[in-house]
Amino acid sequence: MIYNNHIKLADGTMLPKSTIVLYGGGLGDVIHDIYALDNYLYMDKPDRGEFVINIVTSHNSAAKELFEYHPMVLGRKAGVLFIPFTGVPWKKHACDYMGIDPARVRSGKVLTQPSKVKLYMSESDKHIIGACSTGRYAVLHPFAGTPERCMSTGLVNKIILALLRRNIRVCIVGKTYCRTWPDRNGTVRSENTSGFHKGARVVDLTSSGLSIVGTIELIKRSCLFVGSHSSMCIVAWHNRKKSIVLYDETAKERDYRVKNRWSFGKDFPTTRHGLFNNFSPSMIDDLLR
After folding, report:
1. pTM tops 0.85, yes or no
2. Shared-domain flag, residues 88 and 185
């Protein structure tokens, strides 16, 4: 977070007295900082006369959805600016664009109660959520930002059938987006569900227009989250949802041998995790009994 009286953007635009709040990295990084730090809460209590600018530097353009329907943004007392990730360290990239000194940027304070964070859905989100979140259901997020972290169709169907046999409806979530990593510029992540088990109790929301905030709310209302190692498991952990997280060998060695910011919930009593081929329906029974 940074405080400046007058800010001149790289394109020469002068801004009024403003508070700049910086977010960067992948979607999971942005979500983690919203729940773990007090930065997002600053929109609820800005200094008098200050305009709050949320700068989001990410390879995932959907990250800006986390801010777009906040009352302060809708009321034009705050704004959100998305800057595509270019490979330069995101903090330097954002500061260069905003014309501010990186030395004046400080980290937000750690939030002891992530439950204080309130995200805001669109009216479309509310309609979609209301239509599919009644009764007992699980959220299944089988996708991730890179192919090796995505679940196979066979595994997805095994999970779906295990949930249905336990009288649990399944809501499948995912989002197609364009990555802006330098080595993958313009690559479209297509969430293909064509081979997944279909049925009246399986709701495919991947093409529904449900936003990131809507997906978060859907997870919060569910009885269980099942997903790959991606941003949505970060959501489930921060909201203390019962969770099954599955991953490949690379993710296991990088993030699950030793706990880090991308696997902080792995030891929660409400979490079961393992390699893709280690999934067992008993994980569901263990968490929901």
Report:
1. yes
2. no
